[in-house]
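ok here's FMN-dependent oxidoreductase (Nitrilotriacetate monooxygenase family):
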Amino acid sequence: MTAERKMALALLVNGTGHHGASWLHPSTQADASTSIEWYRDTALLAERGLFDLFFIADTPAARTSNLEAYSRFPIFMNVFEPVTLLATLAGLTSHIGLGGTVSTSFTEPYNVARQFVSLDHLSHGRAAWNVVTSANDFAARNFGLDRLPPHAQRYERAQEYVDLVRKLWDSWEDDAFIFDRTSGLTFDPAKQHAVDHEGKFFTLHGALNIRRAPQGHPVIIQAGASDTGREFAAETAEIVFSSDASIESGLRFYRDLKGRMDKFGRDPDELKILAGKPVLIADSAQEAEDMFQTLQEMIHPMVGRMRLGMDLETDLSDLPLDEPIPEDRIPKTSNQHKAYFDHIVEMIRTDKLTLRQLYLRYERGNKTFRGTAMQVADNLEDWFAAGAADGFMMNFSIMPMGLERFVAEVVPEIQRRGLFRTAYTGRTLRENLGLKRPANRHVVPAPAPLEVAK
Ligand SMILES: Cc1cc2nc3c(=O)[nH]c(=O)nc-3n(C[C@H](O)[C@H](O)[C@H](O)COP(=O)(O)O)c2cc1C
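and the structure:
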């Protein structure tokens, strides 16, 4: 490990905070998720904290059943479309990277290639695209499908999709647009490279109608956890969000993913793994624990049942809250998130918890780190020093309170320890992350200058 190794920081932003009951907390702005002023202030605060990336997750769907429960847990029910939001934030910020999710299952490569090049220009080189295949039938039904295509097929489409987007990003050389009033040419015709693509999912013959992105290619993010998802990330991603509860499992994931890159001719440094860190900061560890428990108890039983039932892949709505889930109600196998399913089954069998105790304890694989600012700094340092992450995807239980405390108390501490930058070192997201700018595939690199014998 070199002395210069610094951690990268991203912020996962969702309105009132990461905790499902955060919108009920009196310090939050309940309608933050559609307030541009809220996003502006939050992005500027993250920029003051020298974060690399401001990130917006997305699923293109409102839930249309079980509405009372979703009204009490309003995930993606009332949010901005990410690229539109990020384009506005591009004009209100100057250094922080702007990343957003767009699904490859419900869009066309040409639209998305164009959107992210535009965002990269609007932000002067700060755009990042989170490539997801989506895992939600509510979304599928908005795009002419009854349900999502099978997992393997979604990833096969994603692979062709990203390959095509990258070809489009190279459809103009960097210096193609010359605006030469003497010759009367706006662009050099030799520097357009139209794409001719006929694949399994897409046919495309054409070029983008915008010059090449400041970053060459906007940064590609992924968060796939399955074997297929990891292969895809090893081949194409430049940032990966991981979500592991312990340093040991984080290390296993880190080594596994980076170990897969060699066969694609990639260096491990071409990919930054950012570990997801749900965090709650308070003046003492006990106070943080108490705040967390108070938030957990604000989860309505209807929501607790729904979220637990979703991951246990069964309907729990008829079961009493204060009794254990009977063994015969546990499905034999999982079809969705196997890790979540196995974790719940293990808690049912070993801890003998009641349904209420179960949903109060269950946190979908990760575990909110609760403690003082100093303890949060220790935790980040432990992960970073162990080599389990290149940086962190922070999300705070209550926003903007969590971010305010992090910027005021944790950032100076990790700077003091030499783990984090004290000023932005680059102009673009790639420069700040230490990712190289991709050369255009159609441009032959100039030969290295000949060494002249002295
Ligand atoms: C930090 C983080 C952010 C994510 N953001 C999104 C998102 O915005 N939209 C989405 O559909 N899935 C999102 N996911 C889910 C992943 O893209 C992926 O579908 C999931 O991890 C399962 O991986 P798999 O399909 O390889 O099994 C996110 C996951 C993580 C850890």
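+1. Residues 8-282+372-433 form a domain with the TIM Barrel fold (CATH 3.20.20.30).
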